[in-house]
Amino acid sequence: MAAHPIRLFADDAAVRHIGEGLLARTLPKAEWTHEAHLAACLWLLREKLDFLPERDMPETIRSYNVAVGGENTDSAGYHETLTQLYIRGVRAFAETLPEGTALVDAVNALLGSEIGDRSWPLCFYSKDRLFSVDARRGWVEPDLEPAS
What we know:
This protein is about 50% helix and about 0% strand.
């Protein structure tokens, strides 16, 4: 059994609650889970066409972290390399979905895919490189496998 079982979403409204709460900075901190990060990204890609995740997600997450009492430091909070890697992965996954796939079905399929696994970034990065200060502050290229 996985150390962290995937928590699926019940419906489209549950996914939108995450995304809208992130943007409004009102989502309770306890709800900002791994699954929520991925759900928010897919929701933003599908329903907020004026939001460019590669450009807008960094400040969105940083400001959300501060709003819920967190910090963005060299060891906690926003992580640029993880964010950009997951945006690439979620975008690529979304392009494989059949047109008309319901939001909740798309999110739950994403969570059940290899990208949904918390260890997915370690396919591309060694732990030392991924969890370095440089990777937290800015994009660093993978050292194990290219991330396309």
